[in-house]
Amino acid sequence: MIISKILFSLLTLLTFSVANVLPLSYSYQLQLLDQKNSNANSKYFNLLNYFNNDYNSIKISQIPIKSQKFIPNQISRDDRESWIQEQKTVSFRNILNNIGGSLTNISNPENNGVSVGAVIASPSKVHPDYFYQWTRDAAITMLTICDYLQDDNFQNISLIDLMESYIDNNYYLQRLSNPSGDFDDLSGLGEAKFHVNNTAFMEHWGRPQRDGPALRAITTIKYIDLLNKFNNGEIKTDDKIFNSTADIYNLIIKPDLEYVAKYWNKKSFDLWEEIDSFHFFTSMVQLRSLYSGAQLALKFNDNQFYYYLMENARSLNDFVVFKSGYKQPSLDHLVETPSLYLSNHRSGLDSAIIIASILTHDFDLDVNHLIPFDINDPLILGTLYALISDMKYRYAINHNLISLNLGVGIGRYPEDIYDGTGFAEGNPWFLSTSYAAELFYKIVYSFFNNAEDLRINPANFKFYKENIINFNQESIENDIILPFKSSAFNATVSNLLSYADSFLDVVHSHVSDEGSISEQFDRYSGYMKGASDLTWSYGSLWNAFRWREKVLVLF
Ligand code: NOJ
Ligand code: NOJ
């Protein structure tokens, strides 16, 4: 009895000290065996020789790479998985609730009078009144519907019909005279929003907003791509204003592209509808529409228009990268509205930059390589990192997450004071938080897609050190390369995914038990604020889930 007790404590002691010598460094040790992956000619260091060079006297155990920084005091894994399954379905259904003519919308008496194909921003009619169709929200929402149709191999006939109704409806909206102007000189296309029954909104508003036509063109072009891929380029319905993809191109897409080409070098209100200036988000969606539009013009043998669009795309590209001030030599992040940054009114940080990068890039987009600031651009991660670093302190609701290296609630931009109904203090937004998750999923996806090493460099080191890997030193001078699919790569990527998931956990903590989601959540209490059942909130969350699924199957 006594002997077994002694043996037992000896054993405990032994286990304990072994565990102490090797704290969480398992993945790093495996990396040591990964020599064959390192490239002898590389002028950079890979993880192995980096640590060997600098620390060859130090034992492995003192160079810990935490294999999991994610602290399981949040939502348990099972809870998360089952929430995601349910929330994905609920989110999609609630998107459809807000589209006129969809199966669920027709039966919803609240939404009476919504034109078929009209996408309302939210059913909320007072405090705030969001019962309108915004060109921007509608286009982004229908891009999500296109994503669904693509994953579904173009099977869902009622969604196809809904998509064609959206295009049909926009034929009328484009031609509706409104306070931004008319169809004749195309100025009317810059109108931000319309009543749900397709009449013009006549009150004072931040107008024009020149991202709208670009986003609508992006979505409609994407739909034509789907028709080409899955339906021999033929449209599916026969009760619409158009009879062919050529009609869609000529009647609906072309006016939007002409608008973009004509007005990209003119100021307009930003996507948050507050500032009349040049904005990264607006320029970026315009750029994608011009490049994609040019490709489409070629397919329709519209050669002159192709050259016209390409010429404008190149000038706009030049503006975005060099002349606009979106990129500032002194900053490691981009600037959404340079005029505000240069006049010291704003930091320039804005979740619009992340959303722009996401909406203007896709792995299977034919013009992807032409469009700058892809999701893996250092300045995009730099921007998100800076936003996170600001907002984890700015919003009280985030404070308990700070020391845990978990995702936090992200707002529109640091200086925001719009609280969803009035102007007191800004809050975190569901859509900005969901896009943060989506960006991390996509970054991981891009490593696999390009069979690419994970490169930690002086620019992204702080992000990795604070959130993903437990480095001992404060900075690095050379790149650290984690060879593609090495164990260090795998461990790091899995931390990145946990980090992405933790942004979804934030969303999860603040949605209702039924899965309904508004625009914002209170910066102190976390309670939902602003427009209820915001269509864009559902769409952005659904897309984050979509990319999470796509990346998980790669493991
Ligand atoms: C409502 C807009 O949609 C919101 O973005 C903006 O901040 C306020 N109005 C103030 O213009
Ligand atoms: C306010 C947001 O700032 C704007 O981007 C959006 O279009 C409208 N709400 C409608 O959702």
From TrEMBL:
Any idea which GO molecular function terms this record carries?
glucan 1,4-alpha-glucosidase activity
The record's EC number reads 3.2.1.3
What lineage does the source organism belong to?
Eukaryota, Fungi, Dikarya, Ascomycota, Saccharomycotina
Q: Which reaction does it catalyse?
A: Hydrolysis of terminal (1->4)-linked alpha-D-glucose residues successively from non-reducing ends of the chains with release of beta-D-glucose
Tell me the protein's name: glucan 1,4-alpha-glucosidase
* GO-annotated biological processes: glycogen catabolic process
Q: What class of enzyme is it?
A: hydrolase
Question: In the record, which residues are listed under signal peptide?
Answer: 1-19
Q: Print the keywords alphabetically.
A: Carbohydrate metabolism, Glycosidase, Hydrolase, Polysaccharide degradation, Signal
Q: InterPro entries recorded for this chain?
A: 6-hairpin_glycosidase_sf (IPR008928), 6hp_glycosidase-like_sf (IPR012341), GH15-like (IPR011613), Glucoamylase (IPR000165)
Q: Which PANTHER family match?
A: GLUCOAMYLASE, INTRACELLULAR SPORULATION-SPECIFIC (PTHR31616:SF9), TREHALASE (PTHR31616)
- Pfam families attached to this UniProt entry: Glyco_hydro_15
Q: Name one GO cellular component term.
A: fungal-type vacuole
